Amino acid sequence: CEKEPTSYMWIYILLGNLLRGIGETPITPLGISYLDDFAKEENAPVYVACLHTIAMMGPMFGFLLGSLCARLYVDIGFVDPGSITITPQDSRWVGAWWLGFLIAGATNFLSAIPFCFLPKSLKKPEEANKDKTSHGLLENTDFYNSLKKVLGNRMYFTFLCCSLLQFSGFIGFVTYKPKYMEQQYGQSTSKSNFLIGVTTLPPVGLGIFIGGLIMKKYKMGFIGAAKFSFTMSFLSYAISLLHFFVGCDNLMVAGMTVSYE
């Protein structure tokens, strides 16, 4: 290139994602604690399952929105649509990726308004579970001692490690599978996002909800929940191995998979 790009628009994207992360961070830990403190013990798993199920619907609609935006030209609204001579199937096509940020940002802002009307405190039910460990942690204001106690809890630490492994695999799956479908199966960006949003995330959300119902029905304790989680995770891992048998031959790329001749 003769001229280096001098646009600083990436700073706005960076600041926007920074603010979004700050605003979204309290929802999951504080929201789950809120439900756990003020819901009946047998109902808490169902409520938490509903929370996670709805959270899975966000990425699903995000993929569908991304599929729609990918069909629109990147400069939509600034150029005459009749003057565009290429189609989404053309390798030079760039979709309106920025439009998703505006729609999702406005939706985030509107969905945050109801949180302002939550009561400052609620009356705990008599059946609420009183965890001595939690009270001990709250009474101790020393952060490092509290952190040491939390990480010293073998059940919590094991769950934390399992969650890290699960989310690491899931993030890689969601991030690279659309591109894999484009490269290996010749699908457009729009169709790949649509297929991922429809076939992958709804079953996960449904599974989370069903898991909450099963825990409520059989009133699982810590040990029962751990055994149930281990069994389901192992079956999921075994089924995921089938991905190794899905694929196509390597693409012919001069200088990489075949010679220049």
Structural notes for this entry:
The chain has a domain at 41-77 and 90-117 and 146-232. It contains 10 helices and no strands. It has helices spanning 9-24, 27-38, 44-71, 97-112, 132-139, 143-151, 154-185, 189-199, 201-218, 222-240. The longest helix is centred in the middle third of the chain and has 32 residues, at 154-185. The protein is globular and about 70 Å long. One of its GO terms (molecular function) is sodium-independent organic anion transmembrane transporter activity. It is found in: Cell membrane; Membrane.
List the helices and strands and how they pair.
Elements: H1 9-24, H2 27-38, H3 44-71, H4 97-112, H5 132-139, H6 143-151, H7 154-185, H8 189-199, H9 201-218, H10 222-240
Helix pairs in contact: 3-4, 3-8, 3-9, 7-8
Short structural description:
The protein is mainly α and 261 residues long. Helices cover 65% and strands 0% of the residues.
Label this structure with key terms.
261 residues, single chain, mainly alpha, 10 helices, 0% strand
What coarse outline follows from CA principal-axis ratios? globular
Number of strands: 0
Structural class: mainly alpha
Percent of sequence in beta strands: under 5%
Radius of gyration: 24 Å
* Oligomeric grouping of the chains: single chain
- Number of separate helices: 10
Characterize the biggest β-sheet.
Answer: none
Name the helix and strand elements from N-terminus to C-terminus, one letter apiece: HHHHHHHHHH
Low-confidence region ranges: none
Mean pLDDT: 80
Helix fraction, binned, reads 55-70%
Q: End-to-end distance, in Å? A: 28 Å
Main location: membrane
GO molecular function: bile acid transmembrane transporter activity; sodium-independent organic anion transmembrane transporter activity
Subcellular location: Cell membrane; Membrane
Family: Belongs to the organo anion transporter (TC 2.A.60) family.
